[in-house]
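Table S2 (continued). Query chain:
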Amino acid sequence: MLRRYIQRFAIVALTVLAIASCNKEIVSSKVINVTFHGYNATDMRLEVSVDTMVFDKHIQQANRRVGFSMVYPFPADKKEATLHVKDLTSGKEIFTKTLKLNGDTLEFYHNLVIVDDKIVEVKPPAADPATNKLSFYLYNPESTDPIDILMYNQNTGEQLYLAQNVVPQTWVNIDYLPTPGFWEKNDVESATLYFLKAGTFDW
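Corresponding output:
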């Protein structure tokens, strides 16, 4: 009886040790945040992974805004990890970057704008405390005719040209300051943006 009890205790003890050993392998003492923002103007569904961790519950859908932000845990002695974005259907690698984990950076942010199956380089304008910087990338596969960008407040009838003579397939950066009809947050949120053929009201 005593021998059987000792054997059972030994088995339980070994099982607990095995579980503790397994847990020790997955416990991590550091985390980073990986974020993508942009637009996927393709038919590709995008999968994000860091090394062997695949974020398969957060697939970025085709022809939609890209909005991805997830935490990646790792052991303290890990020096770097590789970030991947791939097309789920073809397996083609769209984006890859090595993340250095031994510095003070805890957040890794990336713009991801994909047009014609290619990543469009994003060059943010220099910050200016005197203005709000707005950037537009206009994609019009049917024409390269210049375009005006008009903001219209349907409640007050106020309108404001944000940019004029913008050439499609290029970035335009503007300095924006609130004007009458767009003072309040609600005014801006309820406004409509019109993309017009330059010099006309054809949209």
